[in-house]
Amino acid sequence: MNHAGLTASSRLMGPDPRVAFDELTKEENIKYRAAYSEWRDIHDIWMKKKERLKTAIASGKKVEEAQAAFNQMEEEPQEPMSPKRMIENPTTEGLYKFYQISSPSLGLFSDEGGVFLGGHSMSAENRLTSLASFSKLWDGAGLDRVRAGDGSSTLYGRRFCVGLMLQGVAAAPLFADPMALEQGFLARCLITEPESHIGKRTKPVDAAAVEKAQRLSRALFSPLLDLGHPTEPDNPQELLPHKIALHPDAKKILEELALHLENEMNEGSKFEAVRGFASKTPEQAARIAGVLTYAKHGGYAPTVNLDVMKDAITLAQFYLEEALRLVENGEVAQEIAEAEKLSQWLRKKWPAIAKKLGRDPRTIIPRDVVRAGPNSMRQVTVVKALLKTLAENGHVVKLPHKTEVDGVKRSIAYRIAQEDGA
Asked: Domains of the chain: which residue ranges?
């Protein structure tokens, strides 16, 4: 079961699964280092034997004897599985390679999510590939790689969880990013922005409360971690998840939620702007219900009951409302930023351009911006909206209909306001 969460906040309060993860990983690292040292020695011997036999075969001396020994060589010793389960800034290529030697279930957890968003995997040239790969993992699909020389291969039975904490300034552009929205990556995340406590933290940190939270974390998560993963009998790196059925009553209210949200995604309806999130919400509720059932029973349980599904739906709907609020805020913030960029261009760049064209630098029409303005403003509808925003805030003044600009009567034209407001 895969989950992704983005939290626009600077603090994580309450039980933290990383406490249990850290303790488990420390113990496993000790065992891993010893196993890796032993494997390395055995693997070196195996490689030397292989190369020696290949050399003997190529030399033409005792070829049959060397070929028989080569054919009877035992299989290459397998590198021990890395105990590392948490990563912070992976590329898709690095993630694929690491899955070959790691646990089949990995998590990208960071309280500095900006490091990931500003990293190589989320750069302009890699963003689409990365977002698509993460979405495939969320869906439980195989992870593909096709490379010249390596051929093609697919890793099945892998799971990937994402938990990022972001400052608002880093989160806002992501929520306004068309690629992250339309490709479906954000819709697969449970996002929230808790109220900031800055300026209200007047009491010192309660050490006893922190210790209590850590004890609770161990009590909640350690037993679940000790259960390990259900995997294919002949491949410990390929998960074989248990199937959890929905009680008929639980299934009924989930179907009712899906129907309700389908109606709310119509044009002009509440969730029109976040259709991706709304369409994924029933599945998010089902996943949350599965996790709650697993935690409640301390492991696998065959059925999700009605009460658990009600709780899961409440949580899923909360995250949907948060998505709506944050996406709308992100769009507004992005629009303001673009309008400010246009305002600066009008004052600093347009006068020189207008002079070359023999134009009045105090007037502007949308086509001027589309042709010569910032690269992000190449659509006339976008430019018209930005100029309207600037007019509403006094940066430009709309001229009367059919005002003549550059020898042509224009339906839309603006006069650029001077610094003194004239």
From this structure: 4-240, 242-335, 349-416
